[in-house]
User: What shape does this take?
Amino acid sequence: WLPNTATQDEVGDKLIMSVHGLIVQLPLDPVNRINTEFITNVVNPEKDVDGYMVCINAGKLSRGDLNDCFIPCTPSGCMELIRQTGLLCLISSSETFIPNISTES
Assistant: This one.
């Protein structure tokens, strides 16, 4: 854990420590002007348990390249739930999840 007064350099130094997985809790403190994109991209992609790393995981997820990236637990769980229900869902290219809408009256 780091205090909200941590500088960008202090955060970057902690990210290279030997850890199994890491979550960068957003939003970062706006008072200290820490660059969010810099911090999220410093995280080793193999340790990015949120899949948020903009230059790798989030980009691969948005392109549908699911075999070579980390899929975070919430979207992975949602997709598994959809598969298990057997229902057809319309998933658009927007950031909004749209559940199946029944046409029955």
